[in-house]
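Good morning C.,

I know you're traveling, so I'll keep this short. The sequence:
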Amino acid sequence: MQINPNLFQGEPTTNVHLGVNLPATDTEAGASGDSKQLSIEYFDNLGKSESLTVEFVPTVPGSGTSNSWQMIITDSASAGAVIGDYDLTFSDARVGGGTLATVTATTGGAYDAASGTVIVNVLGGPVEVDLGLIGGTGGLSQLSNVFAPLAITKDGSAVGNMTEVEVDANGFVHAYFDTGVTRTIYQIPLADMPNTNGMIAMDYQTYMPSPKSGAFFLWDAGDGPTGDIVAFAREESATDVAAELTDMIRTQRAYSTNAKVFQTVDEILQETTNIKR
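The tokens, ready to paste straight into the viewer:
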């Protein structure tokens, strides 16, 4: 397996989660009506950094409280074009006060009440924006007098350079990038065959199947008869040192014995020659 050490990797952003609290006091009569803005970085299809600007404009009534906002989403990659325009209302009930009550789309994808998301189209394609469920927590809320981006998360990553590779016990090869992103790029299979002793030895401690070994079958590491993969380790020698040392001694003794026999035969022939003289 060959891995390019200069491997670059980037992933476009396809999902953004908005966990934002809007100040309830801004929708009361007499409020200033100032909008609240936040900028969210995302990555396009080429790994470039772009941004979504989300603007929340409160609806200030003549009296009482409206509990409603206009949410406007613009895309920097489209020269600030509006890609989403939504009317939001929040509940002021005794139970569930401050949670989303309704979401109505003017521009952009319709609100999906089952998932709590809307789809907006940036220059590179669709992005799913998670606003939260109606009556649920964790998404948009309207409480107190504080504008607080509580949890803004997104997927995708910038282009980064691979810095490290690691193989786990199941054979998965994980590439680590200097952007903090980890990618699984390969899974190493393990081979099993009926007669491993029938393989043909090649160079560099490699072996090739042969008719004597039988056909091989590939297994995932940790599954089947092949066992796990151990990273950052060398295989221990399979040589039985005691047995090999014993065989060496036996061979040495046999050589010494044969040499002694030849020496004795030579001496006998030498004596026979002397007697004839």
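Safe travels,
E.
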